[in-house]
Amino acid sequence: MRLPAARGPVSELVFRALRRAPGQLPPDLGQPVPRTRDALSDEDLQILLFALYELHYRGWDDVADEWEWDPALLALRRVAEADFESSLRRLVGRPPEGFDRDLPRALADLVTADDGPSLATELGRRTGPARFEEFVTHRSVYHLREADPHTWGIPRLAGPAKAALIEIQIDEYGGGQLARMHAQLFRDTMAWLKLDTRYGAYVDVVPAVTLATNNLMSLFGLHRRWRGALMGHLTAFEMTSSLPNRRYGDALRRLGGTPPATRFYDEHVEADAVHEQIAAHDLCGSLVSGEPHLAPDVWFGAACCLALDRLFAEHLVTSWSSGRSSLRTSMALA
After folding, report:
1. Which Pfam families match (predicted)?
2. Is-contact 196 271, C-beta < 8 A?
3. What is residue 23's predicted lDDT score, i.e. its pLDDT?
């Protein structure tokens, strides 16, 4: 996977530097990222963050591995992350009074109160091959590395919370069997749709809001201080997964999807119904019982997950209602 195309002046300068020997970041990037009011829709900032975070995943073929811990590059990322975090806090606000008295209940209430458009309903109502392919194209950026961001939480937890996270992640990785790994199941879905199954193949065609949903997980996963938010994110993700995946599977079946094509969605129907209980009670409940000061972070992570998913769904539904593609270009479906 090679570096994606730049989407603005900052990513242009940084990507050019990354293709050179490590340690040659331009000196004029000392204050690198112009302040932005809405980092969530800033294409330049989101592609920059995505590229820098990927250095901690599988890296880029045209970037030396030594860039991963370059001090100047980490300082640049810190400025971008500050804008990202500010936009997230403006988006979700503060937790309600008394939320920490029963955190699992507060998380359930947060999910129940979410009033964003349902992509599962939209795809089930007016499913066409092109729309489903677009949806899968967006989701491929995450699902081809599914579970990896949350796995960073394992060494940062202890006791019952750690055991609960491992229980969830074992399922995500198919119990160590490649054919059952969720990332592999999603690749099977993409193959049936005749989409490019290579890791990161569609980074260039997805918009900032799609990158932001992925960057959120990396932001939480790469910082130990955000371990509570990472677990809150995972919990909200699991609590909002089972029913939509049933509808996605049914929609794909109506398009003629074979059992291997729909297995990714079918697998999540039962697994995530179990995972949401483990995540809310055994994971987040145990974590906050041992570290009560993390309760606001857990709520924040869950709220951010729901809010960005809502923005993502609104983008797709609005685009489709206007008769246009939700992707930046149509090259993904060529």
Report:
1. Haem_oxygenas_2
2. no
3. 85
